[in-house]
Amino acid sequence: MSEQRGERAPDAGGPGGRSPSPVSRTAERDGDPGTPGIWQDSRVPQNTAQPAPADQPLAAEEPHDVADTLPATLAARLKRDADGLVAAIVQQHDTGEVLMLGWMDDEALRRTLTTGRVTFWSRSRQEYWRKGDTSGHAQWVKSVAIDCDGDALLVRADQVGAACHTGARTCFEAGGDLGAAVGHRPENETSEEKTL
Fold first, then answer.
1. Nearest 5°: phi and psi at 94?
2. Could you give the CA distance from residue 182 to residue 161 in angstroms, rounded to a whole number?
3. Residue 117: exposed, middle, or buried by beta-carbon count in 10 A (0-12, 13-18, 19+)?
4. pTM reported for the whole predicted model
5. SS3 for 111-161, per residue?
6. Among 60, 112, 132, 179, which has the highest number of CB atoms less than 10 A from its own CB?
7. How far apart are CA 116 and CA 94, in angstroms?
8. Whether 117 contacts 31, CB under 8 Å
9. For the chain, first and last CA: distance in Å?
């Protein structure tokens, strides 16, 4: 449910001040153009490159006008854990199906917001991994939202194939139901929140 072991990251680095090694931002921009985000400049073509094949190294970094860091206002809203990470829930954009949970640091979030592809920080391998680079099971970003407390992200994406490294459509399908007692709302209770 947490990290897809079948995915290979294009580079290491990450939380705690470690700098990732250079990778091709062009190779990262191979997603759906979508609507302009907070980094996109209308003068800069977005999402025009083709992905590098999984068995070939990514090209050297090319100059571009997309910011290399999160905007300060967004970074200030994030409440990270002790390792500098925020939980990222991935949901299928059109069905609402909850696919998986991954972890992002500021750089993984920046890549996700600017490339059109979902990127995570692998806690076990201590490197970035862009979902689908080796498996072909890419997650194409449709939207990213932050929760009210700033400690979780909701990534709505178009999932290609299985989201789970086990081959299951979702990590929660693979993990299985825990058999919780089913509750029932009283008939006189509405779905509207009661105010004090």
1. -100, -20
2. 31
3. buried
4. 0.65
5. HHHHHCECEEEECCCCEEEECCCCCCCCEEEEEEEECCCCCEEEEEEEECC
6. 112
7. 16
8. yes
9. 38
Look at the block and give the residue holding tokens 């009210």: 148
Output the DSSP codes for 29-54: T-S---S--SS--TTS--S-SPPPPT
pLDDT at 172: 95
Please name the amino acid found at residue 180: A
Q: How many CB atoms lie within 10 A of CB 186?
A: 5
Other C-beta atoms closer than 10 Å to the C-beta of 153 total 22
Q: How far is 68 from 113, CA to CA, in rounded Å?
A: 11
Q: What confidence tens digit (pLDDT) does each residue in 87-126 have?
A: 999 999 999 999 999 999 999 999 999 999 999 999 999 9
**H or E element in which residue 90 lies:** strand 86-92
Q: Which of 70, 71, 69, 81 is nearest to 149 (CA)?
A: 81
CA angle 159, 162, 164 (to 5 degrees): 110
pLDDT at residue 190 in the model: 76
